[in-house]
Design a protein that fits this description.
This protein is α+β, with helices and mostly antiparallel strands. Helices cover 27% and strands 32% of the residues.
């Protein structure tokens, strides 16, 4: 199976490499600020858990899944690792896939890198599957992820008010989704997007 490499205007999505291990370990460090917005109510992973995740992602699989369940997000200019896109089954029985995105490197926040990555990831997953919809879940304390969804035309499909309580505060849980036909319509040239 060929390597997956997708290039956008700002980022490259690509398969993980063993050489990503060291930079990924640094990006997963429990003291990094992304832990404050990426599901902080689940708790910050320990250094050992972060190390395990880094090793798992950067180990080459003999037969990688199709579609990929995760890709590295890299700066298009220099291939610097800055984040990760992923998906998992919300319900395999009903073909309900939920996506994830995290820009680990805070120097890249607010610059359109996450939007570029999520646009390509959504297009890739619709192209590689026959799924009818894709969505992502976040919380009201993550304005960056909410902005990515809105910019890309995702619809706020659910808001569970005051559902996330932890020592850092109380926030709404939110889900943004897009249907295949909506995504296709938004990507047509008449909508001004390629």
């Amino acid at each position: 199976m060929d390597d997956v490499v997708l290039e956008g205007g700002k980022v490259r999505l690509r398969d993980w490499r063993p050489s990503d291990l060291r930079p990924l370990r640094d990006l997963l460090d429990p003291t990094r600020p992304w832990h404050e917005t990426n599901g902080p109510y689940f708790g910050t992973p320990t250094a050992a858990a972060a190390d395990s995740t880094a090793r798992e992602l950067t180990t080459i699989k003999a037969e990688p899944p199709d579609p990929r369940t995760s890709l590295a997000v890299c700066d298009l200019r220099d291939d610097r690792l800055i984040g990760r896109v992923s998906w998992y089954w919300e319900s395999r029985q009903t073909d309900w896939r939920r996506m994830g995105l995290v820009i680990y490197d805070e120097r890249y926040w607010g610059g359109g890198y996450g939007t570029d990555a999520m646009r390509m990831w959504t297009t890739y997953l619709f192209a590689r599957t026959d799924t009818l919809r894709l969505d992502f879940a976040t919380f009201s304390g993550n304005p960056g992820m909410i902005a990515v969804g809105r910019r890309l035309g995702f619809v706020e499909e659910g808001r569970f008010r005051r559902a996330r309580r932890w020592p850092g505060g109380v926030h709404d849980a939110v889900v943004y989704g897009v249907l295949r036909e909506e995504w296709d319509q938004m990507r047509r040239p008449s909508h001004g997007q390629a």
